[in-house]
Amino acid sequence: MSGQLPAFRHLKLDGVRSRPAALNRGIELAEGDLITILDDDNLWDSDHLQNIVRDFNGADLVYTGVRVQTFTIAGDLMHERIHHLPFDSPITRRKFYFYCRDCFPSLALERSRSLR
Hints:
two-stranded antiparallel sheet, globular
């Protein structure tokens, strides 16, 4: 990977009703080798993609921790929690385990290495 961020597309998939179906369809339609996944109710920090590309360095998969923020109606931060589990922990060595019941971490994978 060159260090420059690749071009990306946002896809609206009419008729696709489940997360797995949407992920599979998006991966099928992807033209590049780096595939990133972001749920529709999540936001990335401005440097998120840059950090993922920097940290990829030949890995099959990169995933990130999750910061969950709750705001008041007025927009004030009410509560924040951070979920992060190292990928080499005993839990993640057994299986790829999502450790946050109400959130989905950001993922990036390289098609040629990860989707065999």
